[in-house]
Every structure is written in C-alpha cells, then in structure tokens.
Amino acid sequence: MTDLTSPRRGIAFRPRWDTTVALLLVLLLVYGFAAEPHFGSALNLSFLLGNTTVIAMVALPMTLLVAAGEVDLSVGSMAGLSGSVMGALWNDGMAIQVIIPICLVVGLAGGLLNGWLVTRLGLPSLAVTIGTLALFVGIAQIVIGANDVSDFPQNYLDFGTGRFGGSAIPYIFVVYLVMLVLAAVALHATPLGRRLFAIGANPEAAFFAGVRVKRTKLWMFALTGLVSGGAGIIWVLHYTSATYDNASGLNLSVIAAVLLGGIDFDGGRGTLGGAVAGVFLLGSLQNLLSLQNVSADSQTIVTGLLLIVSVLGPHVGRQITESVRRRRTEASPGRA
Length: 336
Prior knowledge:
By secondary structure, this protein is mainly α.
C-alpha cells in the first residue's frame, strides 16, 4: 500500500494514521464479537455489509477526488436523484434494462456539471457542491414527487437484498470488491494516482510538470457523479423503494469515512486502504450502536465527533513528526 506521507528515515517509528484506523477497526470488531451476542451472526453481518456497501462505493471515487484537493458534497443528493429517476421511469412503464443506463448517465451528467463549474469557472468545489446538493434534491422532488415506488422486478430486488447462501456476504458487496480493486490499482499503481497526489499537493507545480490539472479534476468529478448514480440504483434495490430523499445522509457518512481514513482534505496525502478502513470502522460502529439501542440522533453525534477527530488526528500527527524532525536536525546538523 503506497503511502505518500511516509516520514523521513529516522522518525519512521510514528504509526501511520491509516494503520491506526485499521487497528481501531480490528479492536472494534473484537469488542463487538465479544460483547454483543448478535453482532457476529450471519444475518447481522450481512446487514452491516449491505448497509455499508453504498457508502463504501461512493467513498472510492471520493478518495481519488479528495486526493486531488477537491470534494463533492452532493453525492448523496446525486444518488437520491438517480433513484428518483429510476422510480419515476419504472412508474411510466419503461423497461428496467433501459432505466439503469439512464440513471448512470444522470449521475455522470451531475458530476460533469460539478467539474465544469469548478475547473472552467474556477469556483471552489465546497461551495459548488453545496449548491448542487440542493439542486439535485429539488430536481428529485420534481421527478418523483411524494411517491414511494417499490414494485421493481423481483430478480433485481433479490440482487439488492440477497446474499450468497447462508453466508454474510451480500451480492452487492461483490460489486464493491471489484470496484475496490480497480480503484486501488488506479490510485497506487498507475500514473493517474501519482498525478492526483501531485495535483493535491501543488496544482501549479503539477501543471508545469505536464499534468493536465483541470482535465484530470473534471474527470474525477465525472467519475464521482457516475458512481453516485450507480449507488442510487443499488440503494433502491437494497432498500426496495425509491423516494426523493433516498441516501439523504450519504454525504456526511462518505466524507467522515474518507477523512477518518487519513485522506488529507487539502489533498496530496493518504492511502485508499485508510479510506476503506475508515468506511468499515464507521459502519461497524453504527451497527454496534444500533444493536445496543443507541438512538439515531446519538449515532449522528458520534459520526460528527469522528469527523472532527479524522481532521485533527493526522494534523496533530504531522506536527509531532515535524517537531521530532526539527529536534533531531538541531541535535545532529551533519545528518540534516
């Protein structure tokens, strides 16, 4: 797992943030299996994986985007719009085989809109995607209204809700695993990943090094929109209904998970493995809290606190590293 934040030789004893998050995930799972009788059941684990899969899917392109120094806060409303289009077209009698590509195109178009506003007009992605978040929700309300569409073909619903035999592995989780492999290769084993980190670290230097900064960012926004559109389809099939407010909390969950995994919000630092660990740490914690009858409001508070910790943790860690490095440099000038 490539780590572009590895400290200089001599101070590598500091645990990487993504490693810390992975260890926390292991500890949480050990606690869950030991302290909560129902946590380790195949049924509950399938719920955990199924409910986390949509978040994990969208977190993959979000990781690429944040690595490049941008963010998309409209992913939840984009997924909701995709699901609304799916429900409305199905109500109108269109074939599901035609509806699914249309929903993906809707997601792609939303991502391209975000990317165009950011790269061509020079607007900050935070402000742009807050605006499109509201825009996509409004369009979804117009498209499907107050309807709740749930009579989708049974074989598609079976795919969204089913799992392999008596195991805990949902069918949709396999789709995520394929996406994870592709994203890992793209980010950590191809020139694209190096370009994204270079853009996030210093877009001007990346430009003068020959990287097409605006075009790369544009396609990362497009990819994020496309995957969000696909996540909207998976959401409808997994929860068996389409409404305009589907995936309404997805934005916070995805951002919290990605940042919790150590992806620097300013770009240029992090690993995909850390983001994956962050997703499943957050999902496992919420599942465990639900089993212990903790209210949804309290779970939202916990998510917010984790978001704060995910921003402060790597920052404090880097400050400690820099402090140790300066002290060693001052103590041994010849080794600087």
